[in-house]
Amino acid sequence: MFDTIQTLCSISGVSSDEKRVREHIMAEIAPFADEIKTDALGNLLVFKKGKNRPKNQVMFAAHMDEVGLIITYIEENGQLRFEPVGGITADALLGKTVRVGEQGIPGIIGTKPVHLQSEAEKEKLPALSDLLIDIGADSKGQAEEYIKIADLAVFFENFCEVDGTIVSKALDDRVGCTVLMELIKSELPYDCSFAFTVLEEVGTRGAAAAVFALRPDIAVVLETTTAADIPEVSGSDRVCLLGEGAAVSFADRGTLYDRELYELIRSKAQQNRIPTQTKTKISGGNDSAAIHKAAGGVRTAAVSVPCRYLHSGVCSAKSSDIEAVKNLAVLLCGILPEV
Amino acid sequence: MRKIIQTLCEAAGPSGEEKEVAAVLKGLLHDLFFSLETDPLGSLVVKLNEPKPDKPVLLLDAHFDEIGFVVTEILDGGFLRLSCCGGIDRRCIAGSRVTVLGKESVNGIVCNIPPHLRGDKDPSVPGKESIYLDCTRSKDELSDIVHIGDRCVFTPNFTELLGDKVSCKSLDNRTGCAVLVRIAQLVHDEAQAECPFHVVLLFSSREETGEQGAAAAAYRIVASEALIFDVSYGYTPDAPRHKCGEMGKGPMIGYSPVLSRTMSDRLVQLAKEKNIPYQLEVMAPSTGTNADVIMAAGGGTSAGMLSIPLRYMHTPAEVIALSDIEHTARLAFEYLMSGGTSHV
Q1: In A, which residues are within 8 Å of B94 by CB distance?
Q2: Quick check: helix, strand or coil at residue A162?
Q3: Which of A186, A218, A304, B248 could disulfide-link to A247, CB 3.0 to 4.6 Å?
Q4: What is the residue-level pLDDT of chain B in tens, covering all 344 positions?
Q5: Is A140 in a helix, a strand, or coil?
């Protein structure tokens, strides 16, 4: 499973450009799925028969897109102006390396040297609109040989695993996609649907179309969610903790989750010795925001891998939490179709 | 040169603990020197040729330390508290990978407060004394390997950009070190006549934390002339143009009240004669580099400066153009073979 995560994380797939991720997933799951369809937006919709016909149609969802940048302009000096695609702040970019365009041209994002900054400037991040990507081009003409306006850029990949912690770009949400793939590759107790969605990072814009096509009664979103269990953050602000298991949400900024499902999931997990926790702060959001109100309404739950430094090139999550999310998803495949 | 600069940058050499870089340099210079030794402050002193009573001494300096951090506390949860050593641009470090030089190397990530906790406030910049490193191990495991006082550097991240541009941590000032290595190669390979100087390469320690390495070494070496090699500001659109040089346009020949104007003029003249691209850099009232302490050491030395334009100084991903290393080394080589200026 962790090899799959590494491979998926290494693929470039910024919102609207998910095709490479989708093609890889399709190739992997094709032998195991009964129906595979790509909809008009690029959502990958999969149906797999299980041993029994379910009372409730259940859909598991994870998004294929990652946050990134889009090139808006090429300066005369060969540097590139950009806008974020998804919620990226300047501190995730300054001093970092990205890869631009189809060829993955490396670029550095930096500013004037600290020696030439005022005391006030040293303590304040510049606006994103002031930043430029430097690919080493000396002129607009040279830059245009390698990249073009509207090209997308991703964080430079640098996957590593140390002591049970995985650090990589795009854990959000290739981790969720990997768990869906594991489910599809296994024997299921009931028929089940799976939606690999697009455009989550730019406002959960793909997921509603998946619901429209699949018409589930119950949906479970498999995601990553912010863990702020770092120094100088205390109490409920920490939201959820690495190593404490799957984070099952009762609410976030986009969704009030189905209360019965939330309690059922947590108690069944406990009975089956799968560690879970909840988010101690109402923050963040995911495809549930679109899913739960789509096509007449869907009872929705979210099960997430706690992840530090989301929306950066160094998302960090524990393998034990990823295992917990997977084990919980497997469990729910057998429970939710019959509640 | 690409390989040389990559090898130099990948070595860990925070100010005061430059041994690893010294070992790399010893390897790179292996058959190019007359003698090599380390001085009490850790600077590497390399004599390219045999000292002779009639030969004036030319000191070529490049600092080989890099900016970094020091561990001040081991915290619960496998985090470390770090302080800065050297003027790091703290706006650029959140989410950067840092290597802690403990009993073994430990890699960590610089923490930052996630957006949902900032409210409407701007993302914050970590304070000088409160940089937290996420090492994703238990406190007990960490305490076995890492101690308070252990030094840290940015994790190496050498990347090739377009053309001859490269990016890595510690290009400030492994670039200068690479210039000295290149000069040693040129003296060995191309000096047809005997070199008019006794040439001493000084890879000085502790520049980033107060230039003490160069001050002490220059006192011992007693040179008639010195050339200092460092990096300077490579122009980016948000910087004042008059303070910057341009990458790829050759060495920035320094003019400053603390430098010898005769040497500066001679370098410009030689660059023109030998068709070496060059730029000018005016620094007042002093240079902010080892030149300031070298010229004043002991009985005093005439000093000149050649700087290589570098973008994103003191961040984890600095950038230079490799051609600038070659042109800088060549200009310095022409200078030393022509006999300099002190006995003109």
Answers
A1: 91-92, 94, 312
A2: strand
A3: A304
A4: 999 999 999 999 999 999 999 999 999 999 999 999 999 999 999 999 999 998 999 999 999 999 999 999 999 999 999 999 999 999 999 999 999 999 999 999 999 888 777 766 666 788 888 899 999 888 999 999 999 999 999 999 999 999 999 999 999 999 999 999 999 999 999 887 789 999 999 999 999 999 999 999 999 998 999 999 999 999 999 999 999 999 999 999 999 999 999 999 999 999 999 999 999 999 999 999 999 999 999 999 999 999 999 999 999 999 999 999 999 999 999 999 999 986 55
A5: helix
Query: Order of strands, edge to edge, in the sheet holding A276-277?
Result: A35-38, A44-48, A192-197, A58-63, A218-226, A299-307, A246-248, A276-277
Q: What is the mean pLDDT of the segment spanning A92-112?
A: 96
Report which residue type is found at B263. Answer: M
Query: Catalytic site residues of A?
Result: 200
Mutate: best of A93, A111, A233, partner B, most B CBs <10 A? A111
Min Cα–Cα distance to chain A from B308, Å: 14
Chain segment A36-67, per-residue pLDDT in tens = 999 999 999 999 999 999 999 999 999 999 99
Exposed / middle / buried, residue A300 (Cβ in 10 Å: 0-12, 13-18, 19+):
buried
Q: Model ipTM?
A: 0.92
Cβ contacts of B288 on chain A, cutoff 8 Å: 115
Measured in angstroms, the CA of B260 and the nearest CA of chain A are apart by 24
d(CA A16, CA A72): 15
Among partner residues B91, B134, B240, which is closest to A316 by beta-carbon distance? B134
DSSP state letter for A85: E
Cβ contact A308–B112 (<8 Å) = no
Strands of A64-122 (E only): list them: 68-74, 80-85, 97-100, 105-110
Q: Residue A95: which of B122, B137, B315 has the nearest Cβ?
A: B315
Which residues are CB-neighbours of A96 under 8 A, at least 6 positions away?
Answer: A108, A109, A155, A156, A313, B92, B95, B96, B316, B317
Say if pTM beats, i.e. exceeds, 0.90. Answer: yes
- Determine the Cα angle at A39 with ends A37 and A44, to 5°: 55
Residue the block writes with tokens 């979210």: A302
Residue B261 falls in which region: left (phi positive, over 0), alpha (psi -120 to 50) or beta? alpha
Angle between helices B2-10 and B171-190 (to 10 degrees): 140
What is the C-alpha separation between A28 and A48, in angstroms, rounded?
14
Smallest Cα–Cα separation from A183: which of A304, A299, A60, A317? A60
The answer to whether the CB of B102 falls within 8 A of the CB of B243 is: no
